[in-house]
Design a protein that fits this description.
alpha/beta, NADPH-dependent FMN reductase, FMN_Rdtase-like_dom, Rossmann fold, five-stranded parallel beta sheet, Flavoprotein-like_sf, 5 strands, flavoprotein, about 170 residues
Length: about 170
Amino acid sequence: MSVVVVVGNPKPKSRTLLAASRVAERVAGRPPDTVIDLVDFGAQLLDWSSPAVAHAVEQVQQASLVVFASPTYKGSYTGLLKLFLDRIGGGALRDVTAIPLLLGGDLRHSLAPEAFLKPVLAELGASSPTRGLFIVDKTWEESPELAAWLQYEEPVLERIRARLGTKAAA
């Protein structure tokens, strides 16, 4: 039962990556097994014969839980994440529980995970039983948005943890 984080931030080792890893740990009750920082692939994301990208896609398809994270760009997720998602066939994530996560500078973008990322994940077959999560990037470490989301979604998160065989993270 693997837990994977996929981050579409064009900046390596970004706040988005740190926040997504924290969300995965809080949801799963343990750190993620795999963190895929898409910026590390560079132009390989455009090369459909890249074995490294194919391996990352395979890890996502075989995961139990995936946090898909991106900064908010122009009110939506990044092209970097879009390039990766385009590599996944329709329905290929049917056994995956997905958490859509976007970080951004202003709560006015707080519907972006629901409006733009969650529908793409559904098209790929993923189940997203929680609301999409938006976190203000400048306060991601204290994140009142994450605390409120965790409290609201706790009944659903308990079912996810039960499936993973874990308990809530402290």
